[in-house]
Amino acid sequence: MEKRERLQAALRGEPVDRPPVALWRHFPVADQEPQAFADAVVEFQQRFDFDFVKITPASSYCVRDWGTEDVWEGDTEGTRRYTWHPVQNPGDWMRLPVLDPERGTLGEHLEAVARIRQALLEIPLVVTVFSPMAQAKKLAGSQQLLVHLRQAPEALARGLETIAESTRRFVRAALARGVDGIFYAVQHASYLLLSPEEYQRFGRPYDQAILEEAAGAWLNTLHLHGEAVMFDLFVDYPVAVWNWHDRETPPALAEAQRKVPGAVLGGLSRENVLVRGTPEQVMREAQEAFAQTGGRRFILGTGCVVPIHAPEINLRAARRAVEGLLG
Predict the structure, then answer these.
(1) pTM for the structure as a whole
(2) In terms of Cα–Cα distance, which of 158, 151, 110 is closest to 136?
């Protein structure tokens, strides 16, 4: 089976020659320049031959044009530390302009996306899109965002509307460059941060607006980031794939698979196995994940980015593991 054929069969729960597999990581320093970033993404795919490519830029790409600043300091996940948040008080939410995705950092990222598409013509691609709440965190800082949510909800809502419209325009531009879907990252649907009612008010309406823009794509993937996620709030989201930290927080793959109509993506522990483990442990986790799901509506992967110091031998083991798992 070709990659697209295999993935589409897996999404429908049909037999496959083997389960699809995909891992992704950050490319620090290279992610600051479109050509260097595109080259890094393409080279990673050519080395490991995954079934789809999740394009993972610096997380600030979506908010730099509003004034956010960050710096690379060597984090093992490949992420940058935020040094300046442009939203300092509730009134700043009201002053955010709608961004033009063809300009600034957004435009540079679209240039990289186009280069990756050109280099990987036959490989399914998804672009990383952060939810408006996740972008708001990058604009105000984690604690300040929660203060504004509870003390200045109308101002925050205005800001989220602006962020959602800017994101819709970016999604439209990315789809026009030939990507196969978005990797929609939600970071606040956790009982440790918000109540379900708060997420329903400040998250879901804006999520729906963006997913509506991406509705024509076939590989839209939902990523629920963090611990104690409100999984049941998202089982009706119009996506093809559900991804979360399944080895670190409930639900398990088998339970989630019973709740959603599409595929579940996960099964491998990022730190315990891919970083600190061995190829044999990678194989065992892959086999256990396959057993949980029966190999149907299942994509082998991790719950989030692979740390940049994960030994390459373990990444290769993840790719080899699916060859021994009969679909």
Answers:
(1) 0.98
(2) 158
